[in-house]
Amino acid sequence: MASDEKSLGLGIGLDIGSTATKLVVLGADGAVEHTDLMPTGFSSVDAAARALASLETAGFAPGGGARVVATGYGRVAVPYADKVVTEITCHGRGAARLFGPDGTVIDVGGQDTKVIRLRAGRVAKFAMNDKCAAGTGRFLEVMADRLGVSQEELSALARTGEPTRISSMCTVFAESEVISLVGRGEPRENIAGGVVESVAGRVATLVASAGGTAPYYLTGGLCDNGYVVERLAALLGAPVRTCSDARYAGAIGAALAALDLG
Fold first, then answer.
1. What's the Rg (C-alpha) of the chain?
2. Cα-to-chain-centroid distance, residue 58
3. Is the separation of the CB atoms in 229 and 242 below 8 Å?
């Protein structure tokens, strides 16, 4: 594939998740040159094609001096990738770049949650939850839809409620619980509070099982959800650092790996 001078020496990271696809382009000096965020949709192959179109439109076509590393759920669906790298490795490296070389990375994705312990910028230990567990971004999305609100509105409601306990570990069964609670007339803010507590509690339990210790770093799609961050910090007993760019952690790690390819 042809490449212009703008693409020389670039590291391109593509993280195709179950819900969102993240794209990061790093210059030879490691500076961020381009980012993009798009829904993954039904097909990882289509998501990879849309990411390629984004690169070409921005003038960062793969080829020549540009190298591409793919990661995430759909990493094997990227025909123009020079290499594929696991999510754990990329998220750990990206988080180390954003926050520091030591600590515990909590990545709440659409279908799973990963806890990664970093030591000197490398993955020392990790744990993942079951895909159906009620501690993922998809769980929040499903529950917000069931309550007829956006995820932002769900968090705002949760701040004002007395959390109702939601016991089911599975999203499907938890949704049935919520339907029953609505039918019994439970206040919506209490249900919202229970949803957030369920997510934060499941994640905190996973962190404990992985032997996670402070400092804590949150990556993934919940980086901008201030109330979830607050509740998670309260349950962990220590601050949880995050930032808007933390949703790109996997793609940043992949882009850094791409730079290593020369």
1. 19
2. 24
3. yes
- Of the candidates 74, 79, 78, the one whose C-alpha atom is nearest the C-alpha of residue 110 is 74
Give the tokens for residue 25.
């382009």
Closest CA to 119 of 103, 98, 99: 103
How many Cβ atoms are within 10 Å of 102's Cβ, its own excluded? Answer: 15
φ, ψ at 242 (rounded to 5°): -160, 175
- What does the block give as tokens for 17? 């998740």
DSSP string, the chain: ----GGGTT-EEEEEE-SSEEEEEEE-TTS-EEEEEEEE--S-HHHHHHHHHHHHHHHT--SBTTBEEEEESTTGGG-TT-SEE--HHHHHHHHHHHHT-SSEEEEEE-SS-EEEEEEETTEEEEEEE--TTBS-SHHHHHHHHHHHTS-HHHHHHHHHHS-PPP---SBHHHHHHHHHHHHHTT--HHHHHHHHHHHHHHHHHHHHHHTT--SSEEEEETTTT-HHHHHHHHHHHTS-EE--GGGGGHHHHHHHHHHHHT-
Rounded to two decimals, the pTM is 0.91
* Angle, CA 141 vertex, CA 136 and CA 143 arms, to 5°: 100
Model pLDDT for residues 200-253, shown as the tens digit of each residue: 998 999 999 899 999 999 999 899 999 999 999 999 999 999 999 999 999 999
- C-alpha 145/C-alpha 151 separation (Å) is 8
Q: Give the Cα separation of 235 and 30 in Å (integer).
A: 35
Residue corresponding to tokens 């594929």: 84
Model confidence pLDDT, tens digit, residues 25-52 = 999 999 999 999 999 999 999 999 999 9
